[in-house]
Structures are given as C-alpha cells and as structure tokens.
C-alpha cells in the first residue's frame, strides 16, 4: 500500500566553479526551471537553510557557492555526503573555463577577482595578486568541490548553450550514472569537462566531399556515407567496448556523471555522428545526454 502522506522528494542543485565561469547564468537557468535559488550561501548556513526549506515543503532548491566562502569551503564535501544520507536528491555542477578565457573575461568586465588581494596582515603590506596567480590559487581551493561534480567547460560556449546544458543535466533521470557524450573540434581545444577523450581525426572525412561539406553528422547523407566505411564502424565498436568494460566500475565508485568527448578537426561531421550513435546505443541502460559544442551555439 502506498503512503500518500510521504513527503515529496527534495531536489538540491549545488553550483560551484571558477569565478567568471558563468555561475550566474547557470543559476538563472535553474530559476527559469522552477528552482528556488540562493547565491553565495555561506557553507555554515547550508544545513539550516535546507532544513528550513524542507519544513516549508520546498522541493526544488539551487545554491551557488564559490571561493568567496574562504575557509569554510572544506566543510562542503562532508555536508553534501550527509545530505545524501538524509535522502536529498543532490546534483552538483562545477563550472570551469581555461585560464585564458577567465583572464579575457576579467579584462573585458574590469572586475576584480575575489582573490586578487591578499589578506591584510600586520607583518606584510597588502599586495595586488597577479590575476593568473589568483586563478591558479582558486583552482587549488576548489579542487575538492570539482571532484565528484559534473563539470561544464564554459570556455567557448555561449550563455544560451550553458543554460541548455544545465537544464538538460537537471532533467536527466536520477540514475546511478549519467553519461554525457560531447562532440568538439580539436582546433578549438579539448573540453575541460571531459573524463575520456577519443580522437577520431584519422577517420574518413566528409568535409572533402563537396556535397557533404555544409552538412553535419546528424544529416542522413553524412550518416550513410560514414556507415559505408569500416574504420568508422571499428572506432564505434572500440569506444563502445571500452565504455562497457568500465562503466559498471565507475558507477560502483559512486560516480554520478561521466563525460565522454569525441573530437575531430571541425567538430561537425565525424565526432557529431559518433556522439549521436553512442548516445543512442547507451541510452537503453544509462541516462545518456548529447552535446555538440561547435553546433549547439549556432
């Protein structure tokens, strides 16, 4: 017999990441999705805040935390583990970007990095940190929060893409493991969020077929052309075999997300085709999401 008086599931999304990586954009996406959002909540207040929200029968809450929490940050991983044991459906997102991208954003906005000034001390004058040094320090301080979170590389994606990625992640079923298959172009850099990277640039390239050049790996003509080549089928089989060999072990290690990046030269044909096929093939057992870095922003 079903207990109709049981409390509804409490869904919590924690957004952390590098300063300037797009946490505000991600938080707005969650607000649009119906989440009650709080920015820069001190870690010491997370447990009482969540207890209050549960008393008020809230079901969808998002919290953003960053390096401004300072010495309290080491508390967060233990707090998250405690919340999981209390039955909270928790998703942790970490937004990252290359140092070059972060430096460029700070230069454009002329904002000061949260760690750009050292703490005042009587035995040393206050000194301005070099921006790159501040970013490096921030990476070190946030390393534990990055581990175990689903990482989104925002280096070269648009705000609309980031919003789309966030909404897709939070709408994925709460299975033991969520797979994210991502296509990309090597000429624009390897995604920082990739757990595994497969290089498929050695495969036959539709770019050199004039009729196929303007199309993508989602178009029927390109799909049929690639399926005619044994090397493409062999690559698909090799990637599939590798993932099938290790996904159970990753799930048993309490991994929530695994991002598999497939790269070709332009991120338009071969990598897109393989991401589509892999996501379809693995969706029967795992929650499988697709991203096409070079196409989604167009």
For this structure, what is the CATH homologous superfamily of the largest domain? P-loop containing nucleotide triphosphate hydrolases
Mean pLDDT across every amino acid position: 89
The fraction of residues in strands falls at 15-25%
Q: Give helix % range.
A: 25-40%
| SSE order, one letter for each helix or strand | EHEHEHEHHHEHEEHHEHEH
Please give the largest β-sheet: 5 strands, parallel
**Judging by the overall fold, what is the CATH architecture of the largest domain?**
3-Layer(aba) Sandwich
* Cross-sheet strand order for the largest sheet: 2-3-1-4-5
What is the level 1 CATH name of the largest domain?
A: Alpha Beta
Low-confidence stretches: 1-5, 118-128
Q: What is the tally of beta strands?
A: 9
């Amino acid at each position: 017999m079903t207990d109709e008086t049981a409390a509804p599931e409490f869904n919590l999304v924690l957004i952390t990441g590098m300063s300037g990586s797009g946490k505000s954009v991600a938080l707005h996406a969650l607000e649009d999705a119906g989440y009650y959002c709080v920015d820069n909540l001190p870690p010491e207040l997370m447990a009482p805040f969540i207890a209050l929200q549960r008393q008020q029968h809230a079901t969808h809450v998002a919290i953003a935390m960053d390096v401004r929490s300072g010495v309290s940050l080491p508390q967060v991983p233990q707090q998250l583990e405690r919340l999981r044991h209390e039955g909270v459906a928790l998703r942790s997102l970490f937004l990252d970007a290359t140092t070059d991208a972060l430096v460029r954003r700070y230069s454009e906005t002329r904002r000061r990095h949260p760690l750009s000034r050292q703490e005042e001390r009587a035995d040393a004058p206050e000194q301005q940190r070099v921006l790159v040094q501040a970013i490096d320090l921030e990476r070190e301080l946030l390393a534990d929060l990055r581990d175990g979170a689903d990482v989104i590389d925002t280096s070269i994606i648009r705000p609309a893409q980031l919003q789309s990625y966030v909404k897709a992640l939070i709408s994925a079923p709460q299975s033991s493991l969520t797979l994210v298959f991502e296509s990309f172009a090597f000429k624009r850099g390897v995604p920082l969020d990739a757990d595994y990277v497969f290089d498929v640039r050695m495969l036959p390239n539709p770019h050199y077929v004039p009729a196929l050049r303007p199309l993508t790996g989602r178009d029927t003509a390109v799909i049929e052309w690639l399926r005619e080549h044994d090397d493409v089928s062999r690559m698909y089989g090799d990637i599939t075999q590798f993932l099938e060999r290790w996904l159970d072990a990753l799930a048993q290690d309490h991994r929530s997300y695994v991002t598999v990046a497939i790269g070709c030269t332009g991120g338009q044909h071969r990598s897109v085709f393989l991401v589509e096929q892999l996501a379809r093939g693995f969706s029967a057992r795992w929650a499988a999401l697709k991203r096409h870095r070079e196409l989604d922003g167009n």
